[in-house]
Design goal:
The structure is a single chain. The protein is mainly beta. The chain has two domains: about 15-135, Jelly Rolls, CATH 2.60.120; about 145-270, Jelly Rolls (Sandwich). The protein contains one helix and 24 strands. It has one helix at about 265-270, and strands spanning about 5-10, 15-20, 25-30, 40-45, 50, 55, 60-65, 70, 75-80, 80-85, 95, 100-105, 115, 130-135, 155-160, 165-175, 185, 185-190, 190-205, 205-210, 215, 230-240, 245, 250-255. β3 and β4 (about 40-45) form a beta hairpin. Bound molecules: fe (ii) ion (FE2). Fe (ii) ion (FE2) binds next to loops.
Length: about 280
Amino acid sequence: MAREHVEFIQSQVLDWQSWPHLKGIEYKELSTDKETGATTGLFKFPEGWKEKQAYWMESEEEFFVVEGDIEINDVHYSEGCFGYLPARYLRRTVRANKDTTIIRFLDQNPAPTYYNYGDPLPEVGKAPVESLNTYEMVWDKGVLDPKLLHLDFGRKILRIDPETKSKTFLYMVSPQVRPESWSGPREHHPTVEESFTLYGTLAGDRGVMRTGSYFWRPPGIPHGPYGSRTGCVLLIRFVGGAHVNHWSEKMYPFSFDAPYRPILPKHLRGKGLKEWKPTPF
Ligand SMILES: [Fe+2]
């Protein structure tokens, strides 16, 4: 498979490496499609970093500011801000006003094409989303799927692609929630599901995902049931089509302390197979 199943890895165990496409930036690769070059990663920009030469990419880009403040074309993206920059969106200036970490979702090879004054402007197909501050949004607590009711959840929809119907949203799960009777059905989707844990913990069938955990789950793979001791906020994407939940008839047990049972590509197994736990006190 060109983009392998990663479920799940704590980004804390991965090393920073230098990003080949822009100088002075480090990143942690979370998942990559070896054929297309599409990739998801955490990117670190040191305070004062600047790209003065304008550039664009054939890749679309979605990103979320985990911490810091980055400015693209004089638009500020502070902690909690989301952006969608369509293919061929011209970045005239990019600067980091603080030490900044963002998670970026790049759907094709992200090599930049530099733009020189006088070149024809690249044509952009889709509308960008510039600096959507998620802290200023309200949780939508409407329940569309009653099988998720026990999570006492909320959503903030960040973007739905008008063509592919791919969806990116924040998903909030309340603390101290679990399936009734400690068991529940498993769900699967016809699309890829990708997720990064921004805050908190979520227990499921592959263990306890903590702040900084990441998964890329190909279509059709059953998962769950879920619950949480602490509550959590996840940044979730359904990639390549509309989000649909299919449920199993069979019920599966739930535990807050499910053992870590990751599925990882070979290159992540060295660091990823051992459970990562923070020091709480
Ligand atoms: Fe799911």
